[in-house]
User: Fold these one by one.
Assistant:
Number 1:
Amino acid sequence: MAIKQSFDYIERELFFGKSKVYMLAINGFTQTEVLQHIVADVQSLSDGEGKIRDLENFIDSKLGFAQVAYVEDWDALIKNLLSGQTILMIDGFDRAVSIDTRTYPIRSISEPDTEKVTRGAKDGFVENIIMNTALMRRRIRDPKLTFELHQVGTDSKTDVAIAYIKGKAEEGLIEEVRHKLDDMQITSLTMGMQSLKELLIPRSYFHPLPSVLTTERPDVASSYLEEGYVLLVPDASPMVMVLPCSIFQFTQSPEDYYKSPIIGNYIRMMRMFSLLASLLLLPLFLLFGVHIPLPEEFALVNTEGMTPLKLFIMVLVIEVALELFRYSTAHTSERFAGALSIVGGLIIGDIAIDLEWASLEVLFYGAVTMLSTLSIASLEMAEGIRIYRVFLILCTGFWGVWGFAIGLVLVLLSVITTPTFHRTSYFWPLVPFNGGALKTLLFRYPTCKAQPSSILKEQKKKRK
């Protein structure tokens, strides 16, 4: 350890009575004021006393801090030190004292940008595992709620907590998560949640859809815990992972449950329609505009005088341009995002039409496709659908009807074979079929009907 070379190590040589003490901590991870009070109290109590004879008795009687532990080997000592704890090594004893005075740099709790709701809770997870578990514990005051702490990464030693409610989560699932975390061969989780997802479920380029569900909202995470799911809570990440996962979970949003049941169901149906529109609208526009001309009374596009190659290039240009526009606004300061959207929507669109790089029809269907993509609740699902859409556009543009048909079959195969955790079908509860679970995932039920049956039985008994 480069204690002398690294400026952020705090080291002091102190005396407790006549016993020499070496203190070691890391600046920025330690609550300095708390540590000063602890040391000052111990030194004042031990002033003039002899050497410490019984370490445990001395700590129990003199050190009135809540979280104190004894460390007997160097590996544990280094791990505690690098995680932010203060180490006291007292002369004459073969074990050190670890005091949990740590604090981490943390931003304020705020609503996640990607999971906003018009009504409801406005808090979200932060990059602190202690704070994140407390946000869930605040909502579920159940003694069976458990957070098992594991460390992943030989260098980073990132804390990852397995969260579940005993008796509700499947024991086989919990055990599989434990084995996966303990057997991970990785130096560090530098990219946090994304690194953890790729290690848990390896995937190929053939599967762009997400294999696990992540959320930044404590209320959503708590509801999944109550339903028997297992959560992974990594430190230094504002997200938690929900295991296992199916495609129907990506059609849900917390907004559905902060509205009345009928409004929530309407919004959910619109979201499902948007998912299909995001995938198929532009490829179908290209297909019916060039390869399968519709009768004039049913035609929704005007492609008169348009060659197949020109229309194909226009669709590709609009797809790429709208994607660049979306990324530019997403990574632009909020002060300029509004002005950029006006410039992109008015000026660039008019110029593209004047230069004959696009037509009104192509711009319209491209804009509707973009709106449909933005209305998908999960950002990862929307990005996967976007990859499928570009693939279908290329297949349709190069090979026509057969290209669209073969491309659609390949997309369906990719979706069906998307790998998941714990050998769960990506289309559960449709495959294997579970009617009750499927209705719960597809529809938003009133709270009284959504509760477990045991609670309903207790309510009926009280009424009688």
Number 2:
Amino acid sequence: MDHENWLELAGVYAADALDGEDLTEFEAHLAAGCSLCQARIRETHEALAGISDSLEPISPAPAVKEKILERIDLEQPGLVFIHANEGSWIEAEPGIFAKILNMDAERGRLTALVRLAPGSRYAAHRHLGTEEVLVLEGSCYCGGRLLRKGDYHRAEVGSVHVDMRTDEGSLMLITAPLQSEMLPT
């Protein structure tokens, strides 16, 4: 390879933008002791540092910042985001609405926000798996006890909820099995 090409690669290498076979070949060239390319890397590092030192930081417009953050989110596999204004609420029973956040069919579990309208009541049921409830807003009676904002409740497998209701309304985060055994009232 012509040495001018090596020097060009040295600048790209200094900017940490060299990859694949080019990176492997260039690092082998450096390991052979090329002082010209090592000098070019130092010069490029100094130039890049001078640029960043001379720039005045600015904040992007809120809409631009949001788009940038959304783009970052899209480029991170394995992360799921559901914003407050996303998803849909379904009426599970009169006055009881659920917004499914995650449904894990393999484990037979779901995570949901559940909103109980004032005066609503959920039918008696037996738990076929562990259910966890965290009250986010309002209050509700669960297992005969009053739960308020910030209170947590866990119902183990086989336990029964006979009286799940609210007077003022409630918003809860619930993780539960996909199915419960509904009991006659």
